């Protein structure tokens, strides 16, 4: 019922004009397409850390955990700038206005080492220099249904994204990979395969929700860092959903005011596992499950869609 109401409201909004292009079959905004050559030629450094995810799979959360580890639990240092300034979003650039201009590429290039960089790129589009430099990469994957729901609400509130259409239409777009950054299925499977050849720590959003301490310890080990119990507890506290939702340095309320409308849906909405049950009808769920089974038949990758 609530969803129908939301859709009625969205019909009254002027349609957004976000032009879409493609890079090797993957949908990108036109703006990303125009800067693609520079992104592909990006020069990674050996001590770069790349945080890679499909959009809305726990990226900001992972970035904050990593920053807290790197700053040894110093909250003030972690609030030195917003997430998107601390960790450049490699392929993303906007030219909404002079005030809202953002180029992750330029930010990254100007940043002193060691850098932590964020991307949503599928594995085949990661700039080759990351592999050449044998960089460490943390990849986080989230179950398809919750990822879809979160991505849908993100499209609703973010004018920098294409109009999602109705919930029904968006499910279809997601299933066919006709969304920015392409197919969720190809994305999670591609990175899963790559972890056997490269220095990739592959994490699951559901594990992070169920046992954040254990997953933070995995990240610590991967980054070859050590913190005492007090710092670990601090990291756990300050990277909890409730604290991050209220932190203007992580909740995206500080910049992009003209682009992100938090009254439609907050950037940090629920952060739970299983919210898909509030969105999918029985018929949609059945159709989705059948399609999912086919698309995931060729991988050993297993997800939990409830805890």
Your description of this structure?
By secondary structure, the protein is α/β, with parallel strands linked by helices. It has one domain: Rossmann fold (3-Layer(aba) Sandwich). Helices cover 43% and strands 10% of the residues. Strand 1 (20-23) and strand 2 (26-29) form a beta hairpin. The longest helix has 14 residues, at 144-157.
Descriptive terms for the model:
globular; transferase; cytoplasm; EC 2.8.2.-; disordered N terminus; Sulfotransferase; 10% strand; 43% helix; 307 residues
Please specify the SSE layout and strand pairing.
Elements: H1 2-12, E1 20-23, E2 26-29, H2 30-34, H3 36-40, E3 49-53, H4 59-70, H5 75-78, H6 83-86, E4 93-94, E5 102-103, H7 104-110, E6 116-119, H8 129-132, E7 136-141, H9 144-157, H10 167-176, H11 184-194, E8 200-204, H12 205-210, H13 212-222, H14 229-238, H15 241-245, H16 282-295
Parallel strand pairs: 3-6, 3-7, 7-8
Antiparallel strand pairs: 1-2, 4-5
Structure in a nutshell:
With 307 residues, the protein is of the alpha/beta class.
CATH architecture: 3-Layer(aba) Sandwich
Question: Main β-sheet: number of strands, strand sense, barrel status?
Answer: 4 strands, parallel
Structural domain count: 1
Task: Quote the average pLDDT.
Answer: 92
Calculate Rg over CA atoms.
19 Å
Low-confidence stretches: 1-14
From the N-terminal CA to the C-terminal CA, the straight-line distance is: 25 Å
What is the percent of helical residues? 40-55%
Subcellular location: Cytoplasm
Main location: cytoplasm
EC number: 2.8.2.-
InterPro entries: P-loop_NTPase, Sulfotransferase_dom
């Amino acid at each position: 019922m609530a969803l129908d109401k939301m859709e009625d409201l969205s019909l009254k909004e002027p349609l957004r004009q976000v032009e879409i292009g493609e890079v090797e079959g993957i949908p990108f905004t036109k703006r990303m397409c125009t800067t693609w050559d520079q992104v592909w030629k990006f020069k990674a450094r050996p001590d770069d850390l790349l945080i890679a995810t499909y959009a809305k799979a726990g990226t900001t959360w992972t970035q904050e955990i990593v920053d807290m580890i790197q700053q040894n639990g110093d909250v003030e240092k972690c609030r030195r700038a917003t997430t998107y300034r601390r960790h450049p979003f490699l392929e993303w650039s906007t030219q909404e206005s002079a005030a809202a201009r953002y180029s992750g590429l330029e930010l990254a290039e100007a940043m002193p080492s060691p850098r932590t960089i964020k991307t949503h790129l599928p594995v085949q589009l990661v700039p080759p220099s990351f592999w050449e430099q044998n960089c460490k990469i943390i990849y986080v994957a989230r179950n398809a249904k919750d990822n879809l729901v979160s991505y849908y609400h993100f499209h609703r509130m973010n004018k920098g994204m294409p109009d999602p259409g109705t919930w029904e239409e968006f499910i279809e777009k997601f299933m066919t990979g006709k969304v920015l950054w392409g197919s969720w299925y190809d994305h999670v499977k591609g990175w899963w395969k790559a972890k056997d050849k490269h220095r990739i720590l592959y994490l699951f959003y559901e594990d992070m929700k169920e046992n954040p301490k254990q997953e933070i310890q995995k990240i610590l080990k991967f980054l070859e860092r050590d913190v005492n119990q007090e710092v670990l507890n601090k990291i756990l506290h300050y990277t909890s959903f409730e604290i991050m939702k209220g932190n203007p340095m992580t909740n995206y309320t500080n910049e992009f005011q003209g682009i992100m409308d938090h009254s439609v849906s907050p950037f940090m909405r629920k952060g739970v596992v299983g919210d898909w049950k509030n969105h999918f009808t029985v018929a949609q769920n059945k159709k989705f499950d059948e399609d999912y089974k086919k698309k995931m038949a060729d991988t050993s990758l297993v997800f939990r869609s409830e805890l």
